[in-house]
Design brief:
Elements (H helix, E strand, L loop, with lengths): L4 E5 L4 H12 L3 E6 L2 H10 L5 E4 L5 H14 L3 E6 L14 H22 L3 E10 L12 H21 L5 E7 L14 H14 L8 H12 L10 E4 L8
Parallel strand pairs: 1-2, 1-4, 2-3, 4-5, 5-6, 6-7
Helix pairs in contact: 1-7, 3-4, 4-5
Length: about 250
């Protein structure tokens, strides 16, 4: 039998990279995308040699068309689509301008939706689609309104997409990481002192008393990708060390 295949957007760092490493270890043929030259270069050095690394910006429809073409040429079909690309922009309400708003939504919501649309013909019957959403979509975070809203748009899509694709037995789910130590934190726009303070405060509110790791999220992604989750669809799995459950 041919090896299963997986496409991971935003797969050159953090959760996407950890998921690529894990799925590759489990026998998948893996393609990852990214658009930052530095993380692309690092991924080419650090990911296993068999992982295909492609530059693609989820905001660009032409890049998405090219991505679908590359998947068709290299894999033929897909078994797993992990829609993980995203950005975070922390800012109070009065500081958000239209350009930032549009950029966040174009990356986090529109880009993931149209990547699914363009690759849908390549998804095998019985395959798995996983969105990265995030606990911020269902828990309030000061300064996180536009990031939460853009990710929340994905969460709102999941049940409808799960119903729409159920006749082909394509499962559609979301994973919502809590506070996780990934490079996206350093790109949040917060100064180093504020970032350190926010990290410490978050860890203090988590029942496990620590931030999560990218590998811990990847383990859940791998479960949703596998046949072990064959009767799971339309769900959002929160992986946050118990964040939000304390009174």
């Amino acid at each position: 039998m041919p090896l299963p295949t997986a496409l991971i957007t935003g797969g050159t760092s953090g959760i996407g990279k950890a998921s690529a490493e894990l799925l590759h270890q489990q026998g998948y043929r893996v393609m990852v995308t990214g658009q930052n030259p530095d993380t692309l270069a690092a991924a080419r050095k650090e990911l296993p040699a068999g992982v295909i690394i492609l530059r693609a910006d989820s905001r660009s429809t032409s890049d998405t068309d090219h991505l679908a073409s590359e998947v068709r040429t290299r894999f033929g079909q897909l078994d797993v689509l992990f829609l993980n690309a995203g950005i975070s922009r922390a800012a109070p309400l009065e500081a958000v301008d239209e350009a930032t708003y549009d950029d966040v939504f174009a990356t986090n919501a529109r880009g993931q939706f149209f990547t699914l649309q363009k690759t849908l013909p390549l998804l095998r019957d019985g395959s798995s689609v996983v969105f990265t959403v995030g606990i911020g979509a269902i828990r309030g975070i000061a300064g996180g309104s536009i990031t939460a809203a853009s990710r929340g748009a994905l969460l709102a899509m999941v049940p409808s997409l799960a119903i729409e694709l159920a006749p082909r037995r394509i499962r559609v789910n979301a994973v919502s990481p809590g506070a996780v130590e990934t490079p996206i934190w350093s790109k949040s726009g917060l100064p180093p002192e504020a970032l350190a303070e926010a990290t410490e405060a978050m860890a203090a509110r988590i029942p496990f008393g620590r931030m999560g790791s990218a590998r811990e999220i990847a383990e859940v992604v791998a479960f949703l990708a596998s046949g072990s989750s064959g009767y799971v669809t339309g769900q959002n799995i929160v992986v946050g060390g118990g964040s939000g459950i304390a009174a």
